[in-house]
Write a structure and sequence with these properties.
Elements: H1 38-41, E1 64-65, E2 77-80, E3 88-93, H2 103-111, E4 123-124, H3 127-132, E5 157-163, E6 170-175, E7 181-185, E8 194-201, E9 204-205
Length: about 210
């Protein structure tokens, strides 16, 4: 794989442009129900849903690690190396909020999260950030799409930070009602998971 650092960036005159994106990650579905379906083709980046095609900065192919590159998850932080761009990577708190709250309170609660030395920068996940970690080989309910190691989040409803464009008093939720995502009034209550962008320098995350 050719990294972005091997390209000349900027200027004009015949230089090869740097990559501006990446192939979407696999859905995790490995059961095939007919030829040509997702479980048959398993289209997408990485060797599998949880195994990268090349090493992360810690020298292993684990898609999900803790902030130290291992899998003890002592601080309940899960780093998703499928989002690593050479500088930044997205991480999630491994646990949902203890109580169901309104959308505004979910946003405020996520912004206030402090874990170890990571005392700021946390926020409520948006709909794409939740979709990226949903494993579609999960259980019978859509809530179980996050119920796999190392997340093991089995909540019926989770807020996202994404507002419904045509109805601004509603926001999208991950639900188990058969649709995967639904929307609800922002004054209703649900649990949430916060995420954070980490800067990667060698094997140090800040």
């Amino acid at each position: 794989m050719i990294s972005a650092l091997q390209y000349k960036i900027g200027g004009g005159g015949g230089e090869t442009p740097a990559p501006v994106g990446a192939t979407l990650i696999k859905t995790g579905q490995t059961t095939s129900y007919r030829t040509g379906d997702d479980g048959d083709i398993e289209a997408g980046r990485a060797t599998s849903f949880s195994v990268l095609a090349s090493n992360n900065p810690f020298g292993n192919t684990n898609r999900f690690t803790d902030e130290l590159g291992g899998q003890t998850f002592t601080n309940n932080i899960v780093i998703d190396w499928s989002t690593y761009n050479g500088t930044n990577v997205l991480g999630y708190r491994r646990t949902a909020s203890a109580t169901a709250v309104t959308w505004d309170n979910a946003i405020d609660g996520a912004l206030a999260v402090s874990i170890g030395s990571f005392t700021s920068g946390w926020r409520l996940t948006n709909i794409r950030e939740v979709m990226n970690i949903m494993n579609y080989e999960g259980g019978a309910s859509f809530a179980n799409r996050l119920n796999y190691s190392p997340l093991n989040i089995n909540e019926a409803v989770l807020w996202t930070s994404t507002t419904v464009y045509t109805a601004s008093t509603f926001a999208y939720q991950l639900t188990n009602n058969g649709t995967g995502f639904n929307y609800a009034g922002k004054t209703t209550t649900a649990k949430y998971i916060p995420c954070r962008t980490f800067t990667v320098t060698g094997t140090t995350l800040t």
